[in-house]
From TrEMBL:
GO terms for biological process: 'de novo' IMP biosynthetic process. Pathway: Purine metabolism; IMP biosynthesis via de novo pathway; 5-amino-1-(5-phospho-D-ribosyl)imidazole-4-carboxamide from 5-amino-1-(5-phospho-D-ribosyl)imidazole-4-carboxylate: step 1/2. Gene3D superfamilies: ATP-grasp fold, B domain, Phosphorylase Kinase, domain 1. This is Phosphoribosylaminoimidazole-succinocarboxamide synthase. Residues 278-299 are annotated as: Disordered. The keyword Nucleotide-binding applies. It comes from the Bacteria. HAMAP family: SAICAR_synth. The keyword DNA repair does not apply.
Length: 311
């Protein structure tokens, strides 16, 4: 099958769309294919902002997201992340099987555009909550703190500044929304829906993953301000699924630039958000294409964060 029937690229070479001959569901960035006994996750170069998928992609973004997830999954395999859970008799499991294009896919399509941007993963029954961990006070957590002095029912000391490091990381779950924003909720909501034992297990695993990853990142001069994890059940056991600790699911800052009391420069789509905010786009209609310099700056910023972590 000719590659142009399967893949759609923009003028900058960003992969915006895949149409493999397998059942598919699409997220904002990833295309997920059901291969029967497993799933194939394709990280495209799409980028979203303010709940819209933009018409411009970020070249190389999909490969970078896949490489970063693989970096952290490998750290789980070696015990650098989650080793103390294994010591306690509850080893941390994840869904990644491999990152090579399966033969059954390569036999049916030109597999070259998929190289370095796919994950083959185990199927799981998805837990309907985002497991958010915050180590610093920013984003929706900062807004909530300003309004009430707490985040998701977790009371915080008075007088904290924007981007202040918290005394210890906090677990603030969110409901998963099919469209629009996820909703931050107290852990009591999770307990009510999942049961106390499962909610506590998710809380403990999320905090351990964050704390271990934050130590690894700190050695590379990177701060992980906050992140969100997804979990699912496979054969009855909870396991980490989806992407993990990428710029699309986490807020990364350079340690040598960190200064509490102001917004920080992030290794993510900050340039895109700022350009859209300064444009005349009304956020109620399809967003405009990104200027080439914004595309390039964003690609470089994603790459800089990944390079620091993997150095």
């Amino acid at each position: 099958m000719p590659s142009q029937e399967v893949y759609r690229f923009d003028s900058a070479g960003s992969l915006l769309q895949t149409s493999l001959p397998f059942p598919r569901r699409q997220g904002k960035v990833r295309d997920v294919y059901d291969l029967g006994d497993c799933l194939l996750i394709v990280s495209t170069d799409r980028i979203s902002a303010f709940d819209y998928i933009l018409p411009s992609g970020i070249p190389g973004k999909g490969e970078l997201l896949t490489a970063m997830s693989r970096f952290w999954f490998d750290a789980i395999d070696t015990g650098e992340i989650g080793g103390r859970l294994a010591d306690a008799g509850t080893p941390l499991q994840h869904h990644l099987i491999g990152t090579d294009v399966p033969k059954r896919v390569a036999d049916r399509v030109d597999a070259a555009p998929l190289k370095d941007r796919i994950m083959v993963v185990r199927k799981a029954e998805v837990v309907p909550f985002e497991c958010v961990v915050r180590g610093y006070l920013e984003g929706s957590g900062w807004l909530a703190y300003q309004n009430s002095g707490e985040i998701c029912g977790v009371a915080l000391p008075a007088g904290l500044r924007q981007c202040e490091k918290l005394a210890s990381p906090i677990f603030t779950p969110a409901t998963k929304a099919e469209e629009g924003h996820d909703e931050n909720v107290p852990i009591d909501v999770m307990i009510e829906q999942l049961g106390a034992d499962t909610a506590e297990q998710l809380r403990k695993m999320s905090l351990v993953i964050y704390e271990d990853a934050a130590r690894i990142a700190a050695r590379k001069g990177v701060l992980i301000a906050d992140t969100k994890f997804e979990f699912g059940r496979c054969a009855g056991d909870l396991m980490l699924i989806d992407e993990v600790l990428t710029p699309d699911s986490s807020r990364f800052w350079a340690a040598d630039e960190y200064e509490p009391g102001r917004a920080q420069r992030s290794f993510d789509k900050q340039f895109v958000r700022e350009w859209l905010q300064a444009s005349d786009w009304d956020r109620n209609s399809p967003p405009p294409p990104l200027p080439q310099d914004i595309v390039e700056k964003t690609a470089n910023r994603y790459r800089e964060g990944a390079d620091r972590l993997r150095a």
